[in-house]
Inverse folding.
């Protein structure tokens, strides 16, 4: 599966997840400590895949220490206004203001907790005795929408009593870390490129076969952005093997 799409939060795609154990563990530790987290990274670096895998782990006993934390996953790509972002997170009822919407979101917290108690049969506590804390994951938040929701409406969002995991592109990072939004995020994770070994594991795992030296050669040419790595490998594998060297030479020349 050499597709460049982000992995989904299901068992099949979980088998293709590689190398992001360290940032994944940091997010889970932040959730356990009751901290909001901001994940930053360039387009194609794997933010959505990371957060989808987190959501999968929380629903799968034995994989995550935060398995009893109810998670709601929200895609926010292309939303540039705070009210529209809030609409994406919770369906706006006619006539409700932003503040009334946030109050309504706070009311839904109990529903998520009850659903998780029923599913996990924990009676509301995990193995360590911690009270269930619902988590909202908002992926690909823009600077303007994020600054409005987590800055201008910061205190009202806090009052909903959810934990928040938010991802944003590197270029939008400043909007979510400019006061007053900066105080909302206790943990900031900068998701960087894959290492050479991780890039090789990603490509071979997605391809389903060992491609020999090809993954490392591609890594040397284009770096560790997963989307770009996979696009380059697809381009090469669409050509006869006799053309691979010439194509890599083109990439080397462009670099």
């Amino acid at each position: 599966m050499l597709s460049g799409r982000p992995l989904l939060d299901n068992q099949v795609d979980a088998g293709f997840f590689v190398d992001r154990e360290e940032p994944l563990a940091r997010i889970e530790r932040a959730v356990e400590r009751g901290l909001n987290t901001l994940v930053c990274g360039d387009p194609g670096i794997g933010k959505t895949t990371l957060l989808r895998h987190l959501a999968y782990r929380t629903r799968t006993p034995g994989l995550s220490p935060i398995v009893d934390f109810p998670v709601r996953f929200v895609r926010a790509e292309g939303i540039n206004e705070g009210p529209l972002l809030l609409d994406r997170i919770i369906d706006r009822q006619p006539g409700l203001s932003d503040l009334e919407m946030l109050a309504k979101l706070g009311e839904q917290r109990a529903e998520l907790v009850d659903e998780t108690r029923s599913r996990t049969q924990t009676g509301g506590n995990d193995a360590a005795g911690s009270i269930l804390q619902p988590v909202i994951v908002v992926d690909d938040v823009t600077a303007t929408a994020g600054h409005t929701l987590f800055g201008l409406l910061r205190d009202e969002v806090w009052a909903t009593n959810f934990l928040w995991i938010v991802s944003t592109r590197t270029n939008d990072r400043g909007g979510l870390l400019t006061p007053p939004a900066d105080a909302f995020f206790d943990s900031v994770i900068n998701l960087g490129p894959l290492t050479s070994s991780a890039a090789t594991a990603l490509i071979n795992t997605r391809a389903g076969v060992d491609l020999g030296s090809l993954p490392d050669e591609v890594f040397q040419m284009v770096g560790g952005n997963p989307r770009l790595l996979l696009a380059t490998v697809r381009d090469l594998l669409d050509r006869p093997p006799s053309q691979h060297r010439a194509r890599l030479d083109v990439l080397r020349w462009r670099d």
About this structure: The chain has twelve helices and five strands.
